[in-house]
Amino acid sequence: STLMGLGSIKSGDKKFLGMVGMHGTYEANMAMQNCDCLVAIGARFDDRVVGLPSNFAQPGRKIIHIDVDPSTISKRVKVDIPIVGDVKVVLADMLNLLDEIPERPDAEKMAAWQNKIDEWRKIDCLHYEKSDKVIKPQEVLEKLQEVAGPDLIVASDVGQHQMWCAQFLSFTKPRHWLSSGGLGTMGVGLPYAIGACVANPDKQVVCITGDGSIQMNIQELATAKQLGINPKIIILNNNYLGMVRQWQELEYSGRYSHSHMTPTPDFKVLAEAYGHVGIVVEHPSELDGALKDAFGKYKDELVLLDICVDPTENVWPMVKAGKGLTEMLLGSEKI
Question: Which pLDDT tens digit goes with each residue over 191-237?
């Protein structure tokens, strides 16, 4: 799945390989790169998905591209079979055709392909080192899912936290993941969450944001108060514009420019100033209790959790700009 397609198939499905692209899983990228037939449904083959187009091109692989907009087809990646049309109609027609033809996939070849995918999965590309001294952002998201359950509507801002959400949260339904995607719009998380609460008053809505993004529209805490709606807001606070810092570390030898977010406001006090609940979480031992309070003790109130996470943590895997999917970095030790 692309970033914007998360939830279109259940994350728990054994055939779901995760997100593709720059911060996608190794198994998803390798499957997309090495398959013999790729069916792209409403995807753009943008730079964050395929990396370097010349690297993505594979002799012998056929690409079928379905999109309602003909201008997106073969725009960045040459495709073999273009299909212009509404995805719902096209897929229904394709399924009908499959029922009519006698040919079926070769069971042995399919088993061999699945074995290859399982080998890629064993690399465990999303592995991270847990700590009892500093909070890891990945662990926050895993704990969130444990406490709040799988049926969350998650609104994200833009940056490292957005990629960690895409990697570590399980989406079981469409329209439960709200992200600005290719627009890269910092500050949308809280307004998205407010809109989701209005549209889905009986659903639990969570805004995952960073200390940079939240400050771009934090005044919308007043709107939430006026409307009487209560999303939970989780700030993965690392005192940086994290994705900018990561690129400056990897591409510019650690010459950090305008990415260090200090001083940051006291988010707990700010939340309380707007009439909401604010909680600061500074140590791994506090994380579980704070999340349980937010979804239990304060379940009917807007809760802002200011969670101080490891400022040095990077998003892995990664395909650096100008590189291809076969040049994925799995961690800092690969640089």
Answer: 999 999 999 999 999 999 999 999 999 999 999 999 999 999 999 99
User: 57-86 burial string, b = 16+ CB within 10 Å, else e?
Assistant: eeeeeebbbbbeeeebbeeebebeeebeee
Q: Write down the architecture of domain 3-121 according to CATH.
A: 3-Layer(aba) Sandwich (3.40)
Residue type, 116: K
- Please state, in angstroms and rounded to a whole number, the distance separating the CA atoms of residues 309 and 307: 6
pLDDT in tens, 149-204: 888 999 999 999 999 999 999 999 999 999 999 899 999 999 999 999 999 999 99
CA–CA dist 133, 88 (Å, integer): 49
Q: What is the number of helices (H) and of strands (E) in the chain?
A: 12, 9
**In this predicted model, what pLDDT tens digit does every residue of 250-266 receive, in sequence order?**
999 999 999 998 889 99
CATH class of 137-308: alpha beta
Dihedral class, residue 51 (left if φ above 0, else alpha if ψ from -120 to 50, else beta): left
